[in-house]
Amino acid sequence: MTDQSHQVDFQAAAHLYKWPSLNNSRREDRAPYVVVDGTLDQCIRDFMGKPEKTRHLYEIRTKSQPPLVPDVLSPEHVIELSRLREFL
Fold first, then answer.
1. Domain of life, per the record (predicted)?
2. Element (H, E) at 42
């Protein structure tokens, strides 16, 4: 039996954003820009392909899918969804 409240639509539209950086730190005085415009699955895969030391510069924005997917996914959230993707 599957719990429909815990289903994630990995084909939902999503955008991978990168924050401009200086010395590997986010520039909060600048706006992030889109590097991938595709599905949530594509954005997660592209994010996971980034070097671990630069992942904090990225975020994924998508339509909220409560309770597991907020509209802005932090790097930590993306990593957890990537791990859970096989089971959801």
1. Bacteria
2. helix 40-48
> Could you tell me the pTM of the whole model?
0.88
Determine, yes or no, domain membership for 6: no
CA distance 5 to 65: 9
Average pLDDT over residues 32-59: 97
Is the dihedral angle over the CA atoms 69, 73, 77, 81 positive or is it negative?
positive
Domain hosting 67: range is 13-87
Q: What angle do CA 80, 82, 83 make, to 5 degrees?
A: 65
Residue 7 belongs to some domain of the structure: no
CB 64 within 8 A of CB 77: no
**Rounded-to-integer distance, Cα 62 and Cα 14, Å:** 4
